[in-house]
Design goal:
Layout (H helix, E strand, L loop, with lengths): L11 H8 L3 H15 L4 E11 L28 H13 L4 E6 L6 H16 L3 E5 L5 H9 L4 E3 L18 H13 L3 E3 L2 E3 L5 H12 L7 E6 L16 H14 L4 E4 L8 H9 L4 E3 L3 E2 L2 E2 L3 H11 L2 E3 L3 H7 L10 H9 L1
Parallel strand pairs: 1-2, 1-9, 1-12, 2-3, 3-4, 4-5, 6-7, 7-8, 8-9
Antiparallel strand pairs: 10-11
Helix pairs in contact: 1-7, 2-8, 3-4, 5-6, 7-8, 8-9, 10-12
Amino acid sequence: MTDMTPRHDWSQQEIENLLALPFTDLIFRAQSIHRSQFDPNRIQVSTLLSIKTGACAEDCGYCSQSAKYNTELEREKLLPLEEVLKAARSAKEKGASRFCMGAAWRNPTDKNLSRVIEMIRGVHDLGMETCVTLGMLTADQALQLKDAGLDYYNHNLDTSPEFYGNVISTRTFQDRLDTLEHVRAQGINVCSGGILGMGESRADRSSMLRELANLPKHPESVPINMLVQIEGTPMFGVDELDPFEFVRTIAVARIIMPESYVRLSAGRNQMSDEMQALCFLAGANSIFYGDRLLTTDNPGADADLRLFQRLGLKFEQHSELQATEAGCGRHKSEQVEQHSGAAASN
């Protein structure tokens, strides 16, 4: 079995050994695997919109949207359909191939799910891929989303099973796995990753990666988030993670999930251009694009275009869903050249 062959039987010790490799050896290994599967100079771009903000019943220790913490976040009801579609059109014009919609719910009611389904269909009609993150789902709700044409469902594991109790008490780790199982059973693509820098150990990061890699099928998208510390939440004030440890985690995710898109997600606003470049070198090939990620800041579009220009990176028109349908191996899709041209003009 080669490094390029997807596995689902990783041990924690194997993953810890990868994380402990000399940095240059680890990056070389990750980049070699990345080049066997993808064009290393193309980045898939998604845009994320909060369609319902705040007043969440969960107690996730990192989240500004929990009703249990005073973060001075303004609560908003579910957005009107036309406002969502307007945002999706704008995202498409700026180069995003997928539009992700997030609602701060423990789980959606049937009434709310019906309204979200209208949004999914509307965004789909714009020619974009659709993704939602709505909290826990029942098997029947996953079926309804499948029937609506949903492409991706995001449901992060957040951290390791061992550290999970330090982050959240209102839902179990198994609850998260159950939702992923419902989504996968309907043939909806899975977007699932975690958050680094919450005070977890390297062993915890290894354990989280093992859980993801040993799922029956690797997530098509694996978002790796750096904690954005928000005053008023229990995670505010934790020691910041060494940037090289974050890059190492990106590299190991690439190695053990070679065909997945690894998304550099929350926390980019706190990362230097050089750190982001190392993440791309380590195998990250997807980002969230736009100045907001739900309730936290994200680099502006102009900043990303300038960075892409400096690194010689281009937007990918064709997303991982289409790549999966076309078959495994190196990505051969047509690309959006006008956006890389826009980058070159800045």
